[in-house]
Every structure is written in structure tokens, then in C-alpha cells.
Amino acid sequence: MRIRSTTDEDLDVFVDTVHRAFGQFPETPVANGGRWWSALEMERGLLAVAPDGKPVGTAAAYSFELTLPGRIPVPAAGVTAVGVLPSHRRRGVLSAMMRHQLTEVRARGEFLSVLLASEAPIYGRFGYGPATSTARLTVQRHKAALAAPRALAPAADADGGSVEVMRRAECGEILEAVYDRYRRAQPGALSRPPRWWALGAGQPPVSPAPRYVAVHRDADGTADGYASYSLGSVGEQSTLTVDETIAADDAVFTALARYALGHDLVSQVVFRHVPPEHPLRWQLADVRAGEVGGHTDWLWVRLLDVPRALTARGWFTDGELVLDVQDPFLDEHGRYLLTVRDGRADCVPTDRRPDLSLDVRDLGAVYLGGTSPSTLVRAGHIRAHHPGAAAVADALFATDRSPHCLHWF
Fold first, then answer.
1. 123 belongs to the catalytic site
2. Inside any domain, residue 25
3. Fewer CB near the terminus (10 Å): N or C of the chain?
4. Is 405 within the bounds of a domain?
5. What is the reported pLDDT for 153?
């Protein structure tokens, strides 16, 4: 078996192979685009080829920016379309592709890669750790009253802003601009390159699937948030499902939520991809009216250069920590002194006694601040070498804003 890079001429065989791996057929093309593979960067694709010349595995990567704590955007490889034909599994094909891909990511100068895991047990052995999570919030409309001491019309908020209802086809440029401002301020968020919007490559509202969009504008008329939604049925209940809510701040999110919760002819409202700790549930007059479900991991992070990764993100507490980091998949090991002063970090090799010993996947899990190191110490993933080590690590890795990722790839 050999691993080779792909070109544009390989698109059809690549798409066919990855669908065979998952036992699926390419879906009927959506009008005006919308096929996920239309945004593939074929120069970043890989094919595993058997001795008889037939492709048996695929892997690809997108060129994204990931926003780190401190509102710092950095290049990130978005790993996607990973699959091995059922006839060739458990023969080392996946491991070979992952090793080849990580080598190429490093060669491009990227110090981290990210992915969405189809199955949680797969990617930890390749050094990826779950760094963000997301949840679904379902609100029954008859219990949807907000506890705020004021009642506002669906089309206005206290700051003089307004909500305009548009069709998805009418507001593509608005969605692109609002999302781009949002992702630059939100740790854990990924960029959506212009070609994704142009091609409709992704899930709504990136795809051109029919949707209504509630666009929020501030007092000056500038769009600063949106909620993409559709109406349908879930079981016997008429349901308004919000694909995603993008907001400049909590006040804008509340205005959009009020709009959705006030929609007529709806029994329940489902907000998809809400941060698990989002305050909306607590804004309801009846705290039990908001049912949290579908809590799941979302973005997985893999560090390829520990010192570079740790010095790239922003920090909010001064201190120092010695980290002993194992990378079993790449057969690497390093011990680093992390020193943080005034929001900036220095990370250098050291032979000092470690405070924490951990796998690179656990470092990926805590990197964005979504999981505290002490949680992984208690879980037996991270070893603390003295009683105060976990508390110091918690303080250092804590962020001013919880990480969250909405982008599907």
C-alpha cells in the first residue's frame, strides 16, 4: 500500500471512495451547489492505494483559521473526509494516512490541526483531544416567557435595534460578514473561507437550502447577528429549528432568541449548537422550560509544535508550569517550562521536575480552555506531581470566554 497526494483530476475517485468507506451514496446535488465536497482542497487530499492500484482510503484537509483565547487567529488544518474501505480496515491504512497527513501539515508550517470526530474512540490515538462541546436547547413555546422585566416586540430591542426577516438567498453577503466578525472574537471558532459561501459547501446556512434568516441590526442599521431557521415537525410537534445563532454579544443573542420564541404556529423551538453554559436557559421565567440535550464533543485539537502553540494563544493569569508531554503516535517526548507574564507566554525545553505529565491529546483538550486540567487529573488522564499543580494549571489555562465552534466540515 502507498499513500499519495491528490490533484483536481482525482476528485471523482476521491468522492466515490470516501462514500464507499461510509456505505453511502453521493447525495443528489443541491440546486446552485451545496455539495460538501465542492470546497475540498484537492492539493491537500490523500489517497491510500492498494498494490492492485485501487484506492482504499481517503483523507483531506481544509485551510482554516482557528481563533485562540485572546482573540488570536492562527492557521489550522481542518481534517476531513477520512475513511477506509471496510474490506481494508485494521490493516494500518488509517494510521499510515494520519502519519502522512501530520507530516504534511507540519511541512506547511501549521502547528495544529482540528477535526470533527465521527466516532469518539478513533482520534485520541492520533493525538487529538476534544477541545469544545456543544448542545441543543429545546424550549416549549407555552413556557417560553423570558424573565426580563420588559416585554419587547419581536422586531425591536431595548437598544433601538431591529430584526428583519429575510430569505437565505437574499442575505448571503450579510451572513458571511456577520459570521466573520463573530469568529474573530470567539475562541474555538473557525473561519469560513469565501469559497465555502460561494459554493454553498456545508450545512445551513452556508448551503443554499431554503431557510428564513432573522437578521439583527443595531441602532445604526449595521447587521450584528442572525438566526437561520426552518419550520417543520418533530414527532407530533410543530417545531422551529434554529440552525445557528450568531451574535455580537448576549443582548443580540437575546433579541434573536426572543424573535424565535415568539414565532406563531410553533409548539417548540429548538436551538442547535448552543454553548452548554449559555445563559439563555437562565433567562427563561421557568428554568425548566429549557431542556438541554444532545450535549456532545465538537472540535478536536491536535498540537504539532507544543512551544509554538502555547506561545501563540493569549493568557489571563501569570504563573509558570513544567509540562512533560508525551506524543506516542509520533514517538516524540518533550518537557517544557511554560512561563506567563502580562498575557504573553514563553515556552522552552527544560530538565526541571515536571508539575504535570500528560499526553499530547490531553494538552489539546485543555488548550482552548474548554476543559480544566484538574478534570483530566481526576479522570486519570493527567498526572499531577504535587498537590498544587492542578490548581496552578487550572488558573493558567482558564480563559475569559469559553470556546465554542459552530462550523461543520
1. yes
2. yes
3. N
4. no
5. 45
